[in-house]
């Protein structure tokens, strides 16, 4: 990102912001050495600049601006690696689950889907819809969120709550069959 500031712009900018802008290249190089990728370093720097602008009025001394901002950058790098680490661990768990997953036989899948549909109908309408579309029909959560006119995050929360409500219904309806994995679904619904 080229430095497009000029002396007239810096003269009208508060001293804290001017100090941050003057050291842009140095900050970017600092981050790039730590994350190993220029695009990621630019993203982290942009986020830090936004946070820094919000807190710029709190600083009194221009000499402390650089030290303060470097502390912010170091914290941002730590946060970046934490987020990346948790994402990698979640992906590894998902990959392991997918490797172990076994596709049920068509007859069993049909019986389970029928049972789930009947029990889902006893839930709140929005929960029943979530279970039917995502679990029974196999529609991806993002796609179902668009259909329902809600955000993907809201859809994930709704689906989680729907699954919990369904689990409770299965326990009420099927009792010990639910906890023991009984496949003969002849319980009273």
List keywords for this structure.
disordered N terminus; mainly alpha; Rna Polymerase Sigma Factor, Chain: A; Arc Repressor Mutant, subunit A; elongated; 10 helices; 189 residues; 2 domains
CATH class of the largest domain: Mainly Alpha
Number of self-contained structural domains: 2
Query: For the CA atoms, what is the radius of gyration?
Result: 27 Å
CATH topology of the largest domain, what is it called?
Rna Polymerase Sigma Factor, Chain: A
**Proportion of beta-strand residues:** under 5%
User: What is the terminal-to-terminal distance?
Assistant: 64 Å
Low-pLDDT runs of 5+ residues are: 1-12
Look at the helices and sheets and give the structural class: mainly alpha
CATH architecture of the largest domain: Orthogonal Bundle
Helix content: over 70%
Gross morphology: elongated
CATH superfamily of the largest domain, called what? Answer: RNA polymerase sigma factor, region 2, helix turn helix motif
User: Count of DSSP helices?
Assistant: 10
Mean model confidence by pLDDT = 76
* Biggest sheet overview: none
- The SSE order reads HHHHHHHHHH
What is the strand tally?
A: 0
Can you walk through the features of this model?
This protein has helices at residues 7-12, 15-22, 24-35, 38-55, 63-100, 106-120, 125-136, 141-148, 152-174, 176-180. The chain is mainly alpha-helical. The protein is built from 10 helices and no strands. The N and C termini lie far apart (64 Å). Residues 1-12 have low confidence and may be disordered. The protein is elongated, with a radius of gyration of 27 Å. Helix 8 packs across helix 9. Helix content is 77%, strand content 0%. It has 2 domains: 7-100, RNA polymerase sigma factor, region 2, helix turn helix motif (Rna Polymerase Sigma Factor, Chain: A), CATH 1.10.1740.10; 106-180, Arc Repressor Mutant, subunit A.
